[in-house]
């Protein structure tokens, strides 16, 4: 692992997270230069090491794990044993941040809760990411992405109007919780810089899910009516949806009346502009089915590529519905360097999705691919004062 260069260089993170929400948060910190020490169970490790296939090519490392654990050092410690807890305390002596996503209250039985640590380490920033937060009637419950998507309302808004509710195709509840955790940590670091004081950050997946209901949440608060599922249509803008073409589908995004006028004038639909049912966005929302039916007959007359070419020339929002092979081969995605090749400890080169945050002075730092289980145990223990004999004894006792 090369020396970090990012804006968080010099910060140490004790990472007691696994699966996705927590690791998303700590990978972001690692990308920004923090030293992230990922504590894993001996012999088993993070659950996602077993979320396979698929594996990364020519390795036994799950693609899932490799995707959210770069720039971390893996140290195996059994925190259920007092000797393991003592090692965590040694790490905390020089740590700035602890991130954990155990069930609410679970770390208290190991003496590693925020209440256990806050007086001993008053400058520690302690970020807890759980399904339902540290308080409230659901606090003891485990949280899972699909469960949170269901309880948080997103599934009620997603899917075909005549079909069953659908979850989003990626685990957005986990990802948003991890990213909100990062935001909270950065705010807490600014507070610590000013005061020297640490604090606990309480991230509940359900809270973050409610927070990003965005316009749909506000639509409900404004009307008191549950928004219906609209499939691929927009609740407040028409046309802003998927349309069929001569050879597939595309997304057409007409966000305002001048753009709709430009669309009509360039595709022999000027007659629609004189019809009050089409004249304004509010009218089009009120006549959604009619507008969709009318434009579907038009969009089916050209191929997707023909539409994209002509609409882009007119600066009208549009796009193909890409499969992932087309996403990763897209010239813009490539120009933005959204894929990174990294050398893995197995000896293989792995390709991962890059950090999307573009910083002009301190860009994300790709120091090391996701670690093999326990890859850095000896190195990290030596750095906090354990000699070779002591490390060997810890291994013999199954502490590490």
UniProtKB/TrEMBL annotation:
Keywords for this protein: Transferase
Coiled coil: none
GO MF term list: transferase activity
Entry superkingdom: Bacteria
Keyword Transferase in annotation: yes
Name used for this protein in its record: CoA transferase
InterPro entries registered for this protein in UniProt: CoA-transferase_III_domain (IPR050483), CoA-Trfase_fam_III (IPR003673), CoA-Trfase_III_dom3_sf (IPR044855), CoA-Trfase_III_dom_1_sf (IPR023606)
Keyword Transferase attached: yes
